[in-house]
Amino acid sequence: MMMKTTRQTQRWYGYFFIGLSVLALILAGLLPLTLVERALILTTAVTLMAYGISYQTRLARGWWLALVVVGGGLILLDLVVALMTPALFLTFLEFLLPLTFLVVLLGYLRRLI
């Protein structure tokens, strides 16, 4: 029986997180959710996608730019959603962790290009 290398195992971890992000995107589209919940799930899905991609050995510049554009759009969407809610500060705090993690991941992915 052949053992998988660490790199092969990590690549499969990446595929797992990419699969989770696709599942989250499907659920965000199918479930009847409020705007805040839908925006939070979309943000989490893109963050999971970026995390899964971080396990890959290389990343094409076009994919990284696409993630940056989508991430920037999500940041704007989340800010607009947070400004529209009565509990502005609490809603903003809900988005803070996934957005911070997404920004850190996009910076990390920059080195894989």
UniProtKB/TrEMBL annotation:
Transmembrane segments: 12-33, 39-55, 62-83, 89-109
Keywords assigned: Membrane, Transmembrane, Transmembrane helix
Domain of life where this protein originates: Bacteria
Protein name: Uncharacterized protein
Organism name: Levilactobacillus paucivorans
Species classification: Bacteria, Bacillati, Bacillota, Bacilli, Lactobacillales
